[in-house]
Write a structure and sequence with these properties.
By secondary structure, the protein is an all-beta fold. It contains no helices and ten strands. The strands form two sheets. It has a six-stranded mixed β-sheet with strand order 2-10-9-4-5-6, with no helix packed on it. β5 and β6 form a beta hairpin. It is globular.
Length: about 120
């Protein structure tokens, strides 16, 4: 059973950067695709981007050019580097497989971007 723990969120001003981490107990080396998701207040959870086991990435249009996903299978960790943050990036950020598995949702990490 994989357990995912997100960290690295916080309060940042618009234009700032954050690096989120997703640590997986149980290992991610055999998981083909990992994704980062976010859920803003009053909105549905959405896919921010994903990375395959081979390192191929794809991003939502809303974050393209501002976010980079990477993974370190040896450390069982997936990262989300976010730059040029905007207030509309404010949300709880989660990692999961892509497509997501219900049992793998963690607590997420809150990102708040002030104007």
């Amino acid at each position: 059973q994989v357990r995912l723990v997100e960290s690295g969120g916080g309060l940042v001003q618009a234009g700032g950067s954050l690096r989120l981490s997703c640590a997986a107990s149980g290992g991610i080396s055999r998981i083909n695709t990992m994704g980062w998701y976010r859920q803003a207040p009053g909105k549905q959870r959405e896919l921010v981007g994903r990375i395959t086991i081979g390192g191929s990435t794809r991003y939502a249009d809303s974050v393209k050019g501002r976010c980079t996903i990477s993974r370190d299978n040896a450390k069982n960790t997936v990262y989300l580097q976010m730059n040029s943050l905007k207030p509309e990036d404010t949300a709880v950020y989660y990692c999961n497989t892509e497509p997501p598995l219900h049992a793998y949702w963690g607590q997420g990490t809150q990102v708040t971007v002030s104007p």
